[in-house]
């Protein structure tokens, strides 16, 4: 039996987040490439980003053919958020990094497990046209309700929020408030001993 979903936020009525959402008027356009397996994940933070950002587009797919939009993006002012040894570290305070960040107009983000994100990279050669960006220091993970195999894993929302703060000095408080609300509402019906495990993280 399928759950009844909120018409606006698309979360279940019992975990509706509409009252917890605010919209950030971001200048940097976020392009999210989402693995199809993430669509039905109830704890999907990419969906939250489309509700909380004025400039955000979500595209579902796995291969080059699914992401034809990439061909229209300006190469010089578009970056891909992806860990790489040659990536520009956005939290580097150097002049060159600051100048590069100020010139960005689009940021591509891959939404999926590390394995799925790597698969999208392998099947979408045009992603290699864009400069990669990453972080030298990973902020503390506030997304308690999904297990990640790596200690430096951030949810898509956290990665985008941190990027927007570093690139355009955006006030991302509203994004983290939406994430906290998601954490709380997804755990509200758990037995206390199970809920305690998530809250202890």
Automatic annotation (TrEMBL):
The keyword DNA-binding does not apply. It is an enzyme of class 2 (transferase). Coiled coil: none annotated. InterPro entries: DTW, DTWD2/TAPT. Keywords: S-adenosyl-L-methionine, Transferase, tRNA processing. One of its GO terms (molecular function) is tRNA-uridine aminocarboxypropyltransferase activity. Residues 2-191 form the DTW domain. Its EC number is 2.5.1.25. PANTHER family: TRNA-URIDINE AMINOCARBOXYPROPYLTRANSFERASE 2 (PTHR21392). Belongs to the TDD superfamily. DTWD2 family. This is tRNA-uridine aminocarboxypropyltransferase. It comes from Pseudoalteromonas haloplanktis.
């Amino acid at each position: 039996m399928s759950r009844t979903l909120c018409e606006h936020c698309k979360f279940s009525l019992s975990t509706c987040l509409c009252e917890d959402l605010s919209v950030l008027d971001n200048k940097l356009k976020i392009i999210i490439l989402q693995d199809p397996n993430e669509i039905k994940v109830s704890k999907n933070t990419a969906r939250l980003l489309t509700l909380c950002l004025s400039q955000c587009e979500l595209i579902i797919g796995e291969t080059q053919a699914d992401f034809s939009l990439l061909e229209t993006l300006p190469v010089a002012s578009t970056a891909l958020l992806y860990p790489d040894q040659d990536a520009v570290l956005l939290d580097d305070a150097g002049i060159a990094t600051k100048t590069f960040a100020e010139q960005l107009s689009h940021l591509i983000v891959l939404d999926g497990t590390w394995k799925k994100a790597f698969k999208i990279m392998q099947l979408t050669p045009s992603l290699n046209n864009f400069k990669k960006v990453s972080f030298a220091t990973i902020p503390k993970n506030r997304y308690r309700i999904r297990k990640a195999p790596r200690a430096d894993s951030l949810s898509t929302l956290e990665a985008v929020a941190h990027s927007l703060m570093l690139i355009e000095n955006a006030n991302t408080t509203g994004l983290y408030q939406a994430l906290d609300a998601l954490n709380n509402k997804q755990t509200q019906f758990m037995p206390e001993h199970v809920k305690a495990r998530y809250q202890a993280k």
